[in-house]
Write a structure and sequence with these properties.
Blueprint: H1 6-35, H2 41-53, H3 56-67, H4 72-80, H5 89-99, H6 101-115, H7 118-125, H8 130-141, H9 143-158, H10 162-168, H11 178-187, H12 191-215, H13 217-222
Helix pairs in contact: 1-5, 1-6, 1-9, 3-10, 5-10, 6-9, 9-12, 11-12
Length: 223
């Protein structure tokens, strides 16, 4: 029996939107962390890396409060007429963006740090503007980092469970993503449907990692 594919499509949408938002939002943050030597670099880096060590349920709990009717994000959403964020697709996007933040920031930061000062100084001697320098020098040289960040960010969002369950619940066709659907099948002893989805996730994870190792030029040079 082929399982319901609605959670698969919802998960793909969530991962795509989250990855796109993170690539844009994390670029200035990663660039700042790669260039600054200020004392607050360590605290900021620690905050960015918190989802790596923080239990997803803890992060989901505080995000639920943050986006709730009395939280800052909840009040802002109400003022803008967006409606409530918890138990909605928008809430899932916000939660996933926080949870996958370090998986996008760190590859970008490493790519920016690897560029060094020489290309930037050469661009400055040619009187290139900051925007010209970014699009003509930094972006092409950091392409492997963007590839890694996009792939890992997308894959990590696909595999989320605890955070999306805390923030989005388990609403069919609205917040029930792939990982929650698998849990539902196992809980209902529907192992055939669980096998279909789990095998798909296993294959997807392998393909993602294989593509990352094969297509990343940095990995090829190190090999």
């Amino acid at each position: 029996m082929v399982p319901d594919l609605a959670p698969v499509w919802l998960t793909v949408q969530l991962a795509f939107v989250t990855t796109l938002i993170l690539l844009v939002a994390c670029t200035p943050l990663a660039w700042y962390l790669s260039q600054t030597t200020a004392w607050w670099k360590a605290p900021v880096s620690a905050v960015v890396a918190l989802p790596l060590v923080l239990p997803p349920t803890v992060l989901g709990f505080y995000l639920l409060i943050f986006m709730g009717p009395h939280g800052p994000a909840g009040k802002l959403a109400g003022w803008l007429g967006i409606g409530t964020l918890p138990f909605s697709f928008g809430g899932l996007v916000v939660a996933s963006s926080f949870y996958s933040l370090p998986f996008v920031v760190q590859p970008l930061q490493n790519a920016f740090e690897a560029i060094g000062k020489a290309p930037l100084e050469a661009a400055a001697t040619l009187r290139a503007s900051p925007w010209d320098t970014f699009f003509s020098v930094i972006l092409p040289l950091a392409k492997p980092g963007y590839l890694t960040a996009a792939v890992i960010g997308f894959a990590h969002t696909v595999g989320e469970f605890g955070v999306v369950l805390m923030v989005g619940g388990n609403i069919p066709d609205k917040t029930r993503v792939l990982s929650i659907q698998i849990f539902d099948h196992v809980e209902s002893i529907e192992y055939v449907q669980a096998h279909w989805l789990s095998a798909g996730m296993l294959l997807f994870s392998f393909v993602v990692l294989l593509a990352l190792y094969l297509l990343n030029p940095t990995g090829k040079r190190r090999a």
